[in-house]
Amino acid sequence: MACYYVLETLRYAPAVHRRWLESFALGAGIIYVMNSLFYTPDTGAAWQSLARHSAMRIPDDTDPTYNSQEEDVVEIPMQEIGDRQGLFFFGQLIRDRGTLRLSRFHLLPTKDLCTLYGEDSEFNLRSHFQTASIRREPAPKPVQRRFTNNASHTTRVTDSHMVPIPEIDFGLTARGVEFRRNGGISGPDAEVDSDDEDGDNDTMDQRVSKLWLQMLDDVLVGKGPNPRRHTQASYGSLSATDRHEVSEEMFKCFRLPFSVACYREASPSHWTLMFTRFFPEPGTTLPHAMQHFPACRYFQDYRAMISQMEKNDVKILRRALRQRWDGLYWMPYTAVDRMWVTRNVVGAQTFTLPPEWKGAAPQVGLNPRFARGAYHVELYVAEAED
């Protein structure tokens, strides 16, 4: 019952509390204890690290430096209590604003914690969990039971790209933009600095550079537009090699990488609206039926990122992203509930490629800064690969 109680407190804790490293560690520790009731305790390195760091510690009277009269507890040599009591005792649990979490003094290395959750970095670990800064409307109650498939996640560019992600100078590192210190926890261990050398070492500019390229990759590859019929080929015209080398340059010209397309010049207000849909402000409530965006890795990372930053830093981040956004020539002409719209649109200011095309096509919005005067929009056709 004690294990279920802890899991329930984590389940109903505020989203930002669930994403504390100390909460992740406690959740993994409870799973370790529950599994050990039925199976031999896992001997994997990460699990053993968890058991060693999170366990209660007692004075090590076998250590030659041990002095039972020592008053400074920091100087007393300690050892994990292990299984000598017949039970597993956690070192210290702290109720932090109503949420149970493990003490920072008993936190295992970030690398091991990420391994337990199947992630490769602290940032990816945090972004895997929902945040409270951008919410979706609750689902309406169905008339009858329905079975649906979970939306898949797009692939990370750090895994799919053939070359290292170039760092863009967003000016965030220089301005001191950073995540909240200690993840926002409070309590007697809140001011303890972590000595963990396995955490993320990326600068803020490096993180946002990955976020930016992930967004571009999600637009063309991860959530690239497809016809409604599964028997029809994708609208995208990128080659297999191009799909692993999506870059900003593909969006800084009027060569659209599609077999057919419908384009129009976005008004300045709609170009701003498109940016806001890609990078919502904290506190935004998304439509329940929102498509494409929630499954995009960049969108998940963005939500996690702004939930760990102070309000003023979020404003600086969004201004930097907007400045980069305004350098693109085109982006999907978004709708209120989706990234890509592919239905047929007829209008005086709407054009199709090829010109004689009358069917459905991905809708593209041209940046009004670059769509003024004489310009030529064409389709990009990739060269055939052997």
Give your account of this protein's structure:
- The protein has eleven helices and twelve strands.
- The longest helix is centred in the middle third of the chain and has 19 residues, at 204-222.
- A four-stranded mixed β-sheet has the order 9-11-7-10, with no helix packed on it. A two-stranded antiparallel sheet has the order 1-2. A two-stranded antiparallel sheet has the order 3-4.
- The protein has helices spanning 2-11, 15-18, 21-36, 45-54, 110-116, 122-127, 157-160, 204-222, 268-278, 297-307, 311-325; strands spanning 57-59, 78-80, 93-96, 99-102, 135-136, 255-256, 261-265, 285-286, 330-332, 351-353, 363-366, 378-379.
- It has two domains: 2-62 and 74-130, no CATH class; 160-177 and 201-379, no CATH class.
- It is an alpha/beta fold.
Compact overview of the structure:
By secondary structure, this protein is of the alpha/beta class. It has helices at residues 2-11, 15-18, 21-36, 45-54, 110-116, 122-127, 157-160, 204-222, 268-278, 297-307, 311-325, and strands at residues 57-59, 78-80, 93-96, 99-102, 135-136, 255-256, 261-265, 285-286, 330-332, 351-353, 363-366, 378-379.
